[in-house]
Fold these 2 entries.
Entry 1:
Amino acid sequence: MASSKLGQSDDNPLSGGDSSGLTNLESNPQHSPSSKLNGVFDQYKCQPALAPIFRKPATNAQGADQQQPPSSVKHKRKTTASGESLPLVKKAKRASSGYAPPSKYAHLVNKLTDSLAPNLICLFVGLNPGIRTATTGHAYNHPSNLFWRLLHKSKCTPRLCRAEEDGDMPKLYNLGLTNIVSRPTKDGAELSKAEMDAGVAELEAKIALQRPEAVAIVGKSIWESIWRVRHGSNMKKNQFKYGWQDDTERMGVVKTDDSPWPGAKLFVATTTSGLAAGMKPYEKEEIWKDLGDWVAKRRAERNDETAAT
């Protein structure tokens, strides 16, 4: 299968790989999403962030605030060679990540490009490239990221692939890679909701152009962004679910008379970032297994169809 790479792109995939037959969407305007799908996607407004939640202090049976007993753990002071005690020095807490403007990483050269081709079995959509991914040009390239391991354990790929093979995913296994935001950051917390929402229309256009059978969203926050743009409101807790989504949530739907398309079915997977500690590895594997079973089945069916012709 011929694969196409979108120039210095947003997210996911790759550099390297066989470039024969690649369609350069930037150098061929007639193939660009904007020229083929002009007018398909409407403008939208970003929603304000939710207000923070404050918890009340715990109370005892009489209603008074409970006081925590002082810690019984004694901190051992360091001593000099002569036995004199040194003063205790408190370690500075690591500051939590917050929004970082593009200027913070403007010095980085983002080498990551999309790994795309028409009629893929599944297109994986990540959030944005991390620093290591951007500088090496290979998707999910941090040692702590579980993407390639989950891809293999779920049977989306029959073997464990390396990040350096990201550009070969379309021709090897009919899988593609992209992101919803292209600029690199240390982590997802340095992105704003507004720029995530702004990436939805371009993502829909990519999907409409390449027409994969399915789209896998790699992380809850990406799906929440898509939901905000589509529904004009934040997703409620009882509206979120991992796995296959309702058929009405297909992505990349094309309604033009000359070439209509019902869109790609949608699967929401867990994030694979090593910084996300909300779920244990086996819990992530259970969610990814549903996607992997379907991908492996469709690949076998396609191979049978090819063999029969």
Note: Residues 281-308 form the longest helix (28 residues).
Entry 2:
Amino acid sequence: MQQVLFLPPTSSALLLFLPASLSILLFTRAYRSAILLPPLVAFFAGTCLLSTPTKASTSSTSPLPQAKSVIHQGFNYDSGASFSSNFSVARRLAGTNGAFASARLYTMIAPNTLNTPTPAIQAALDTNTTLLLGLWASAGGDIFGNELAALRSAVETYKQPFVDLVVGVSVGSEDLYRISERGKKDMKPGVDVDTVVGYISRTRDVLTEAGGGLAKGVRVGHADTWGVWRDAPDVEKLVEAMDWVGMNTFPYWQAGDENAPANGRSLFDEAYSVTKKAAGKKEVWVTETGFPVTGNRSGQAVPGREGARRYWKDVGCGVLFGRVSTW
């Protein structure tokens, strides 16, 4: 079985809680290109007991607040992924009891089309995989209009069976990070708070109208780095417009901190606490996190399987799985 990786021009691939028996998506900040590599040795399966999506247990010893809704666990997928096979493999991961039954997308648009809905929808229907939909928000108003057209078409084409699988809609991903001073150095510029808020309003309009209102109850949010929820100007306005808050955090990138694998849990807890404070009463979903298995050293963090295994155990098993919706 092959591994799917997404590689930026410079920097390492990041592991997003993926057992190596899966056709792995190693996520980075590029989102756009993919290559296939030989399989890695499976070493995550069986590291913690998992259960299928359910309401959070009140007996958990996690320091995180208990979620108020059904917990979803899954992976992030590029627009060109082999959705059907990946969704099926995710459900069959050894030792997980079918717990990874959700998928996060970054766009509603099928590759090489103007606004045709992504083939991930049919794959989700075929495999009973829930979806955290994504609308790409940093490519201009016309492109976002195409995202909305694809969303409308999906609701009207696939109707209630599709809507029943939709966990929520993420309007954009790291758009505010990409207009921060640090983000501008790393990637193409994103958009500001007012733009995202406006896009959220337009998304709600489509959900309310499409298919006679079939999707009007779908929850809408935005995913960004934890530093954005701490530092971005006017972030309160954005939080007010959302139903949930998505947090992306990678201790590996925190080279200015003591970010050795042994400190991954404490750095994650700090990021979650910051995001939770900004979110107020809004639920926080972990939309991206992980540790690299390949790439360059970042501060005290050295990519490798041992570090990835420890992050899976300390953060995945120790904090998130079964307690917080995580992709």
Note: The first helix runs from residue 83 to 91.
